[in-house]
Each structure stands twice: as structure tokens, then as C-alpha cells.
Amino acid sequence: MYYKLINNKLLLLIKCLILFFLIIGIYIIYWYIYIRHFFSNIPYSTPTTVFSRIVDLEPNSLYSKQEIILMLVNNGYRNVNCVVKSGQFHVNKNSIDLFRRSFYFPDGVESSIYVRLTFYKNALIEIKNLLSDLNLSSIRIDPKLIALIQFNGKKKQIYLPINKYPNIFITMLLSIEDRRFFMHEGVNLYSIIRAFFINVIVGKNIQGGSTITQQLVKNLFLDNTRSMWRKINEGLLALVMDFIYSKNLILETYLNEVYLGHEKNEQVHGFSLASLYYFGCPINELSLEQYALLIGMLKGASLYNPWLHPYKALNRRNLVLYTLFKRHIINKKTYKILVMRALNVQDKSKIKKSYVILTQIIKKKLIKHFKNKTKSLFGIRVFTTLDIISQECVNKSTQESMLFFKRRMRLKNLEAAMVVINRFSGEIQAVLGGSDPYYLGYNRAYYARRSIGSLAKLIVYLTALEEPDKYQLNTWLSGKPIALALSNKNFWVPKNDNNQFVDKIMLIDAFVHSVNIPTVSLSMKLSLKKIVDKWKHFGLSEKQISMVPSIFLGSINLTPVEVGQIFQIIASGGNKLKLSLIKTILSSDGTLLYQNFPKPKRLASVESTFLMLYSMQEVVTKGTGKSLGSMFNYFNLAGKTGTTNNLVDSWFVGIDGTQVVVVWVGRDNNKSSQLYGASGAMEIYKKYLKNKHPKPLLILPPNTIKFFSIDKQGKIITDFLNKKVDRFLPMWCVVSNKFCYKH
């Protein structure tokens, strides 16, 4: 009986042990499958990286030295006294020595290169490779990382292969966090026992014995609860992970997954992103003390945040440096130099989301382009058309101007929007959706349709000038009062802004001074249908335009982007290039997914668009934009002001040698902004040009355009002895009608 009882207990014990090991086995198998699944899906958790446009520099390109410096600084390059590694530059009197980073461009990887950029006045005249002493025909500047778009969760990271991390950084990290990483099996019993005795002696938990593998397990799969069960679980999963994967893969994952801070509601993971976040440059360009700061933050990213707790962060960094000195990673001289240095983190204001509107637009376009192919969005690289110099200048000029307007007008709810477009390619180079560039609010540049006022006159005069048999810049227009009967039996009686009238006025003067009644008279001669058809020809839909005479003076609602498309056609000489924001999209493995190739479509003649551009230059020289012309009188700028009834909307479109800039100022409630086009929107454009040096607008007339001497009666002068020249005007000379020779 006694032996039977013992046998039963032994059998029960064996069964319990079998059950226990079975449960442990099932538990291990579960985590084995789960861990493998997680690692296989790492590529599908990598966010989309969005870059600014790639700048191609060539000799004789119109980039000033200051513009290049601004571009480099905004892209995280450092101005140093002696250039020794990539990511650095040095400014000389007439040149810049630049060590450009290596970069994976859409067409392949380009290694780092050390060059000298030489300038004369406001132009780049020479690019020389300082290592080979050979002149280069061009060089590309690596674009700026402007956004990370995460399509699931709130974790932000940039996944960087382990071979891209500097060896010295990995050596420093392992020396501090896990010196026996390549020797243990995921759990270091020696470290655990040592930490246990130290904690017992001190009487509190001051040291942990976790390996890097255990830390990775905790970060990925467990919470921060302090308990024996979690510690056992952590060790077990670390053994499983170490059994499945190589040390290099575990270390690579740790480098890219470790938590190092947060930005609002988004977490910053991985040393690669943390380097950009705290220092504004890639991790391979950091100094030793900066590496030490990041490594020190592993003990507590919030506690040792260098912006929130700089004193604690400095002490922690110096403790890491001291440990590295004691472990012979750095020598005494280096240690003494490094501990005396400041934290050297970037100003936190630099990481403000100045590209929030652009990021929002890109995200919507990607979702629309890839539709339901969610996995296609992970890890892709998007190269945009955004010009960081233009965007910075847009942000600065708008903030300064709006602060002034709000104080002067005492209007707190005054808003603004801007769009900057390359006039030849249709690429959107900067966009602003509201008066605060760092606030993700309503995107007025893309979605706010507002009455465009006198900007609509462009289409009226273009339509007329496309009939050279009837209309030229010296054609006389009636300025007498006019009343038009409407379909509702009422009358529309347009007025000039000054409430005065003239008998007649030359066509170019009516446009330059934005006179309303001659514009309406001209429109009625052309016919309402012809004007409406021209708007439709330029891309407006039936819903956007009505068959009413008031459209002659701007009762058409368009967004700033839509206005930019209209003026881009004129600025490019009549070719419409669909406005674009995305240049190239690459998959995570470098496969080309999308490439934008501008396809010009001719919508207006080169002659009529030349005459309109000339007239817009006259607006800036003599008309409603005269104050702009006096400030930038050597650049032949073109422009057009626009103001709607009761000063509700203030518009200005400016054109220089490379860009079309659309500016709108107004209030969302459609109440008066108390600003004309010239006193509101144009003032922002002035500040923009002060911040960003304009390029001269040089427009060459086609062979069919000739310049003639004109007298005050608007007639072509042939008798120069008896006639006084009033002005010179270009005219479209068509052989069939011989208009140019009538006088």
C-alpha cells in the first residue's frame, strides 16, 4: 500500500512535469512562430521616406553663393573651418569647399565627393573635384529628408543596415550595453548574477543585467512592468531569438528599433532617426560625444532628453564617456576634450513640421495611386519637386507679413496661401496652406476656392490678342459707362475702382492699370461665349464657370493652385504642363514604381503669350505693381494684381526667370481683408524675393513679333521727323493681314 502510494505520487509528478514541459514547449513554439513572423514583416513596417527635389548644379547656373549655403544648412551640412568628412563645407571668399554625402539617387548610388564650387557675382561658374583636380560638368546635391509617412501605428524610424552604422559607434554601444554580446546565447548569466548582488548590497535596483537581445525582446514584445515573471519571459524569448537569428541581424534590429524619444504623438525609434532628430544629420557624421549622448539615452529617453533635461543629459553623456575611457575605447586626452564640449543638439525649432501640408498632400496622392495595395506603401522612397530654399523663403516671408497685417488691420483671423511653380516644368516647388506653416490645418492652397478678381482679365486680353487682325496692344478700347441686361431683367453696371471714366484707353494701358470698364467693353466685343470657351480650354470645368458677364472681372472661384496652372501656361509661352509634386517613386528594393515625365500641351500661341508677358512686365514697371518694380528694377519681373469686391480677397501672381508665385490673402468668413492686391498679397511676394534672390525674366520675341514706335494716338510712326515717339510696343505681325503696317 505504501509503495503503491509512492508510485501514484511519482506518476502524478511525472505527469505534471510532462504537462509543464509540454506547456513550455507549446509556449516556446508559439513565440518561435511569432518572432519569425515579426522579422519577416519588418520591411512592411518601414515608413515611406519623402525627399525634397534633387538639385543639379552646373557651371553657369544661376545659383548664388548664399543660396547654396542656405540649401546646405537646411540639408544638415555643417559649416566648418576644415573639411574632413562628408556632410561638411567651408565658405571661402568666392567659393565653397563641399564634401557631398554619398546618396542612393533614383538612378543609382553616388559615392561622396569633395568639390569646390566657385562663384562670380550671383552665378556658379566652376565645379572642381579637389581630389582629382578635374573640372566637373555637373554635380547633384543629395535631397533633404522632409517627412516620414507611417501608414500603420505611430512609430517613426529609418531602417538602416548594420554595415551603414560606423564601427566606432557599434564598439561604443556594445562596450556600454553588452560587452559579451557575441559570446552569450541571448542571456548573460554572469551579468545577471553580478547585477543581483550589486542591487542586494545597495538595497535598491540600480543595475540591470539585460543583454541587448533581452532589451530588444522587451522593446518589441513585452511591457515595462517590473516583475519576476516578465524577467523570466524576457530571458526565455531572448534564448529563442538568439537560436533563430544571427547576432548581426539581432544587433541590426536593435539599432533600428530601440526607443529614443517622441515627437508629439509619434515615437522616435532607432539611432538613425534619432541622429536626424536631435542633431539634424546622418549618424555617420556625428562626433564621439554625440554618439555617447544617444547611447546614454538608452537608460531613459525621456529622463535624458537633451532639450527637456540638458543638465541630466550632459551628466549622463559624460558618464558614458568616462566608462568608455575606463574600458580603453577612448584615451585620456580624447576623454578630457569630449567632456568639455556642449551637447550640440540642434535647435528644436528646426524640427518643426514646416512640411506638414506637403506631407498631407503626398500621403493622399500615394493612397490614391496605390489604392488598396497597402504593403506597396511601406519602405518606398518618394522624391518630390519641393525646393527647400523656396519653401523656407515662403514660410519666412508669410510669417513676417501676416504678423504685420494682423497688427495693422487688427484682424486675428487673416489667412494666406502661396504656391511656387517652376514655369517651364510645372513642378510645385513650395506650398503654403495657411498663415502658420507649422500648423496642419485647412489647406487653402489646394482646396480654398476664392473669387480671383482682376486676375481673370488675363484670359480676356489673351483672347483678344490671339486675333491680331483685330487687336494689338495699341488698340483703343472704349472707357465709357456701360450697363448690361441680365437674364433676370436686372442690369449689371460695372465701375472702375476710382469711380471715374475715360472716353477711350489703349488696350495695354487698360490691362496694366487694371481698368474695369474697358475690359468689359472688350469682352462684349469678343463675346461671352468666346471668353467662357477660353477658360474651358485652359482647364476649367462646366461647374467652375457660369455664362454671366461678371466673369470678365473675376467672378470665378479658383484655388491658388488652379490660378498657378493658368499663369504657368502664360509664363511658359503657351505650353500647359500639368502641375506636379511627385517626381519619382522607388520601392524599398529600388524598383522604379513611378516617374513623372512632363508632357507639354500647347494651349496658346507663342505670340499672344509673349504679348501678355510683356504686358505683365509693364504692370510691374508702370501699373498696379509699380512699387515692386522699383525694388527689383533689374529683373524684368512680370506680375498681376487681383482684388475682389469690398477688398475680400487680395491676390498677386509674380513671375521671374524660373518661377510663377501665386499669393492669396483673405479671411475664411469672406469678410473684408482691408487689403488690395498691391497692398496685401504683393507685399508678401516682395518679402519672398528679398529672401530668395529672383532670376531675371528674359523673354525673347518670336520672329513674328516686331517692336514699333508708337505716338500718343497709338499709331505706328513712320515719319520720325514730324512725329514724337510716345513708346515702343511689340506687335504680332502676320503677313496675311499686314496689320503692323497700318497707320
Description:
With 743 residues, this protein is of the alpha+beta class. Strand 9 (123-129) and strand 10 (134-135) form a beta hairpin. The mean pLDDT is 87. It starts with a helix and ends in an 11-residue tail after the last strand. Helix 1 (2-40) packs across helix 6, helix 10 (310-326) packs antiparallel against helix 11 (332-339) and helix 13 crosses helix 22. It has five domains: 49-147, Penicillin-binding protein 1b fold, CATH 3.30.2060; 150-351, Penicillin binding protein transpeptidase fold; 386-452 and 556-581 and 597-696, DD-peptidase/beta-lactamase superfamily (Beta-lactamase, 3-Layer(aba) Sandwich); 456-553, no CATH class; 705-741, no CATH class. The strands form eleven sheets. The chain has a six-stranded mixed sheet with strand order 3-4-5-8-9-10, with helices on one face. The longest helix is centred in the N-terminal third of the chain and has 39 residues, at 2-40. The radius of gyration is 34 Å and the shape is elongated. It comes from Buchnera aphidicola. One of its GO terms (molecular function) is penicillin binding.
How many runs of DSSP E, i.e. beta strands? 33
- The radius of gyration is 34 Å
Helicity range of the residues?
25-40%
In terms of DSSP E residues, the strand content is: 15-25%
Number of domains: 5
Strand order of the largest sheet: 3-4-5-8-9-10
Largest sheet: 6 strands, mixed
Net shape = elongated
Average of per-residue pLDDT values? 87
Secondary-structure content class: alpha+beta
Outline the low-pLDDT stretches.
Answer: none
- Can you say what the CATH homologous superfamily of the largest domain is? Biosynthetic peptidoglycan transglycosylase-like
Kindly provide the name of the CATH class of the largest domain. Mainly Alpha
So, CATH architecture of the largest domain? Orthogonal Bundle
The first-to-last residue Cα distance is 137 Å
Q: CATH topology of the largest domain, what is it called?
A: Penicillin binding protein transpeptidase fold
